[in-house]
Amino acid sequence: MHKSFFIKIALILPFIGLSQNLIINTTNRNTTTLNGTWHYIVDPYQTGYYNYRHQPYDQLPENNNAAFYNNYHAKNKMELVEYNFDTSPTLLVPGDWNSQKEKLFYYEGTIWYKKSFDYNLPNKKRLFLYFGAINYKAEVYLNGKKLGTHIGGFTPFNFEITSIVKPVGNYLVVKVDNTRHKDAVPTTNTDWWNYGGITRDVKLIEEPLTFIQDYNIQLKKNDKNSINGYVKLNKGSKSEKVIISIPELKIEKQLTTDKDGKVKFEIKSKKIKYWNPKNPKLYDVSIKTDYQTLKDQIGFRTIETKESNILLNGKSIFLRGISIHEENPMRGSRAYSTDDALVALNWAKELGCNYVRLAHYPHNEHMLKLADKIGMMVWEEIPVYWTIDFNNKNTLQNAENQLSEAITRDKNRASIIIWSMANETPPSKARNNFIKNLINLTKSIDSTRLISAALEKHNSNGVNIVDDEIGKYLDIVAFNQYTGWYGGSLEDAPNAKWNIKFNKPVVISEFGGGALQGLHGTAKERWTEEYQEYLYQQNIKMIEKIPNIRGMSPWILADFRSPKRVLPGIQDGWNRKGLISNGGVKKKAFFTLKDFYKKIKKQYN
Ligand code: GCU
Fold this sequence. Notes:
It is a single chain. By secondary structure, the protein is of the alpha/beta class. Helices cover 17% and strands 31% of the residues. The protein contains seven helices and 35 strands. The strands form nine sheets. An eight-stranded parallel beta barrel has the order 21-24-25-26-27-30-32-33, surrounded by five helices. Strands 3-2-4-9-6-7 form a six-stranded antiparallel sheet, with no helix packed on it. A hairpin with a 2-residue loop joins strand 18 and strand 19 (309-312). Helix 2 crosses helix 3 (365-374) and helix 6 packs parallel to helix 7 (588-603). The structure holds alpha-D-glucopyranuronic acid (GCU). The site of alpha-D-glucopyranuronic acid has 9 residues, from loops.
C-alpha cells in the first residue's frame, strides 16, 4: 500500500466514525463524573509526544516511558524520568486554562491533563469515556493505550474503554492542543478568545451489552399529528424489542429492530400540546429495551417557512433575539454549566427575547436543555467563520464532522429551530460548494428544521444589497449589518434603501456597536452609552422597514473577551458591543431593545 495512502488515512482518521458512535442524552444515563481537579503539564515543545527526532511516540514500535501518556514514575533514585503529573499543579475540569492561571491567559499550544480513577465494572456491562468538548485537538490515552483523537472545540465525543479499564489505578491522560491552524475550523482569525482546555463535562457511562445509543423523536416535517424518528441500539442485533412511551399522550409503541439494531417509527396523535416560547411544553418520554430504560423530556413543534413568513406551529412569528457567546462575562471565562446558561438566558428573557443566536459554535448541552425548558428558540451554528480554507478537503471533512456531532447531540431539542452553516464567509465557487455540502449533510440527518447562514450585504449607489448566491439554498436569508459602526450614517439609517434578492424570511443576524459601560457623552461620541443607544434607535427604525423582516439577533448580549480588541481604557481585550458589561451592568441600549421587543410582541401575538 503506497505511503501516501497511510498519510491520507492519518489525516482524516480523527474525523471518521466519531459522530456515528456518539452516545446521546448522557445526563439521563448511569454515569460517574470525572469533573474536578486534574493535574496538568504545560508542553509548548510537545516533548511528551515527540522524541528528539520529532517522531510521535505513539506511532513508534517500541513503547517509551518518556511519553507523557505513560504517566511513568521513577522506580528508584537512579532512574531518569523528567515529568511527574502527581507533583504537577492542577486545573479545574470543566474549564478553560486561560482564566484559571494568569501565566496561561494568552497560552496557545499543548497542555497535558491527567486524572486517576478507580472503577469496578460489573460483568455484562460496558464502559464509555465521554467528553462534552475539548478545545481544539484532543489525543486521549487510558492506562498508556491510545483511545483516539478528536478535532473540534465545541462538540462531544466518546470512546469505549470496557477492555482497558481496571478496578484500581486507572490513569487517563489527555493531550490538549488549541494551536490555531489555517486549515482548521475555525481558522486562525476569530473575534473571540481561543480558550483552551477540557472545557465541558467529562464522565464515565456504564451501559448494558446492548444499549440505546442514539434516537430521534420529533414531529414529522409538516405533519403536526405525526411523531416519527428512529431508535439505534449499540451492538444491537435483529429483533430486539423497543418500547417508546409517552404516558401523557397515552402512547406505548412496541417496535422491533432490524439486523443493525435500528428501528424507524411513526406514531399518530391528535392530543399533542405544541411547544412554543409562551408554553414550552415538554413530554416525559421513555425508551425501554430488555436491558434498560432511558428517559428524556421532549417538546413537539413544527417550524417551517412560507414565502416571507416563519411559521411556528403554523403561526407567523417574529424572532425577538440576541446573539450570545459561550462565556460567563463576570468570570471572564468559557461558560460550561446550567448556572452559566441561566445567567445568559435570564438576561435574554428580561430583554423580552423569544429567540437566541448561539454564536459561532455549538454551545454546551446545558444551554439547549435550558432553552427547551424556559421556552427560547435557538439558532445553532458551527464555526465556519470568515476565511475558512474552502478548497481543503480535510477542512470540509472537519466541518462536516462538527456539524454531524452537533446535530446528533441536539436533534431532539424542540428549542432549536435553525441550523446555521457559516458566518460572514466570502462568496466564491469553492465557498459555495463547501456550504452546499454542509446543507446537504444537514438535510440528510435532520430535514425538520430550517437552514441558514449569516451572510453579508454590500452597497451599490447608496442601496444596501443582499444577493449572495448561497441565499438560494437557505430557508431564511440572514445577514450581518453594522450601519453606524463599520460604515453608513446613523442619521440616514431610517431611510436606507434595501434590495434583497430573495423572497424569503429575512433575519438580521447581527447589528450593533461598542460602548464602555459607564462612559457617557453625546450620541455622536463613540464608545459612550449614548452613542450605542442612538445606534440601536436608528437601526431599529431602519430594520422595521426592511422587506420580509421576521427577526433579529443584535450583536451581542454581553461584552466578551477578544484578543483582537486592544484599545486601552476602552476595550482592553474585550469586545464592547454587549448590551451588558462584563461586570453584569446593563447599558442604556439594553432598554432601547427591550422597549422595541415589547412593541413587536404586541404585533405578533
Ligand atoms: C462580526 C462577527 C462577530 C464579531 C462582530 C464584531 O460580524 O460575526 O464575530 O464579533 O462582527 O465586529 O464585533
